[in-house]
Structure prediction request, 871 residues.
Amino acid sequence: MLALKENRTTPTVLTLSLLLGLFGMQDALAGDTSDTMRVGDMQFGNALDPLGWAPMLQPADPEGMSYLHAGMLRTPTGALYPYPPMVNAGKPLGQGDWLYNGEIEFGYLHVGGDRNAEYFRQYADWRSGPVLGLLALDFQNPKTGEYVELRGSHLSADDQFYRLRAGQYGSYRIEAFYRDMPHTVSTNAYPIWNGVGSTHLTLPPSLVPGGSTPAQVAAVSAATPEHTIGLTRTREGLSYEGVVYQNWIASAGITNEKRTGTRLWGGPMYFNYPFADNGGILETVRPIDFRTTDINLSVRNVGKVWHFLATYNGSFFRNHKDYLDFQSPFALSNVVGVPQVANITTGQFSLEPNNDYHNVRLDLSRELKWNGQLTMAGAWGTMRQNDSLLPPTNCTGTGGVYIAPTADYTFQCANWNTPAALSETSAHARIDTALLDARATFHPTQAFGWHAGLRWYREDDKTRYLAYNPLTGQYGFISENGSQGSVVPGGTGIFDPTNPLYASSSVPVRNIPISYTDSVLELGADWQLSHKTSLGLTYTFDRNEPKYRERSRVDDQRLKFDWVSRDVVGATIRLSWEYARRDGDKYNYDSYVQFYSQSLPGFVTPSIGLPAYTVADMRMYDLSNRTESKSRLIVTHPWGESATVSATFYGNRDNYDALIGRQSTSTTGATLQWDWQPTPATTMNVSLGVEGSRMGISNVNDADYADNGNIYGRIGQSNPNLGGPFYPYANQWWEYDSETNRNAGLTFSHDFGRARADLRYNYTGSFGHVGYNYATIGALAYRDAAGVAAAASGFPENKYSTNTLDLGLSFRVTSNVGVRLYGRYETGAFSDWHYLGLNNTLVYDHRLYTDKGGQLHYNASLVGVMLNLKL
Prediction:
């Protein structure tokens, strides 16, 4: 259930346009478009100023975009360009040639209602108190082209940004920035451990590690104060771009991102579902303390014939808390009923390791005859990490199960809780990548053009690790910190060719260095059928050659058709259709034998064979045969001189040739939008959207108990075929996962001259349903009367919806003083069957949960007043 909880439906971040309306920003304002792949971040802002680098807040310019064309202009496809903001000429700065503009906006926010609701705070640190809504300074020298620009906004210490840019147009640019962005994961969490946020989770004194009852744990959980789980991203950077010599331009940038906080995490102490009052499934809290430093360097030259670009990208990740250990309150007992010799009370995780990434790339291009162009690229990259490895376990004393001298399944933790138990003390992990890419395009006539491209990419995992313990001469690792082998005899996770008890243990002993080579050929042509109509056709052949996978060759062929016309009853029509088919060589359902202990000398295959690793008819969705079709229709219709109606219809369908595994997926959707701007002072937009998706999968339960086949441990368990004794048709089941998303939006603004009014409404709804069918009750995990009754009733729908209404009024007191009043009212509803029952208690047998999930219903409001001063 923990894994399922991680897949719960979460709301999307509020749209930028929605947030803009809250603070009355002009619809015509645009974000900073000067960022490139070489210098600067791609997005700035916070909840108060989501654009992050909009021009000064000015009314729309009634002159529009051109003195030569009255009224508004449209894009080639018919969409309206917004009215640009009026340009403030600036004020003289001293006696020189510099001009400046400045603006500061500050005030007070009051947050009411369910202010702590998880989805209301998910990416914004709303809180009552004074705020700096905007700080903007702009210095320009029209004669030299030099400029300095500063912008900032401060909602809280965890939700703010500041950005400084300076340079000279056509010569150089320098940029520095700092920003904090919150991410609230849960406001409804109740972790029972001490040390939340650290690498050590310890139980409170009222609970005994490995010796507490579910009732005792439930009492502590019920008395635990509510916690907020989340993190803050702090990002800062410095960059430069400029001309270094004639046509040579260089750039350099460094960014540093630090993430601090907590996240919900797991804590397995072996199964509890099939073993009542045993095992342990824990939802813990892990620390977040990452730092990622990115370095980007480039140099480019645009010559008369050749264009040249060389880049280096490096990324260096450091985790300052790279492990987590925790205490478990629940006792373990073996399933054979002999005295318990093991007392495993702790678990551990190795978290993300420090790692480095380097990539160098060279791009060349030149003009060719027939109005053509040739582009070529080559790149090499490497990803490496060599962190010290944790010992296989941190338990102490004795683990395992002792039945008799000839059935001694115990192990000494001292032989496994030390780095001396490792075959290597550090990872020596490395993945190298290589890329070659070439593309040629030609347009010999205005009516016809064609292109051809060839791309080759390789990803080579060079990591090799053998899990061997020099202290014991055994292979493998201690499963789930010793808890599994202390419940089920022989489930320790090790292989020992010298011990008959473990000589037939099939366990993973090597890492799987999954690699692949991908080669893509693309051929295409386009025809200009008339002045307003064009046709395009593209064929793509993609050969993927995976290594250490179920297939060694996968071919994907794709045909794409595009038709564009600007001559259909005044509208622009863009239609595209794709068809793809994927197949490959023979499918090997069990391709990982070489990484398991049966590949080692001394392995003894049982007389009845090993249990089938998986059913032979299983197909991995990224390797199975598949047919795919996609279609999209976009209609843009100008409505008079000041409005546009646009609609998009799309659909995707995939069918997989799989009896077991993913069988089908489909997505259909539509959007409708009306944009109206009759004058520079009035703007209105209405949008509607709906999307539905569906996925079908199938699987089969193995015959592991008397009530569904009872083949496990008997002759026939090695038969992998669907319909065989180990995977009978009677144990097959099917799942149909469907989801529908709906959204609607309305914006309206009008500038009365000295005052401006804004109204915005946004609705988002997501509805998911999991349906299923099964051949017989042998397919179910729970086959008692209660389990069968629950299966018959099915799962409830998952539902999530929000409604947000924003109202704003801005008015000018003087030419340099303004006041902005605004309010927001937001409601939300959340229902996810994964969380049903958790509001009653977070403890069910030996299963302990921490998060109760999002609020079922919430209502939150925000009102504020801002004073705007032009400096």
Summary: Helices lie at 2-5, 16-22, 214-223, 483-487, 785-793. The two ends are 57 Å apart (CA to CA). The first strand starts at residue 91 and ends at 92. Residues 214-223 form the longest helix (10 residues).
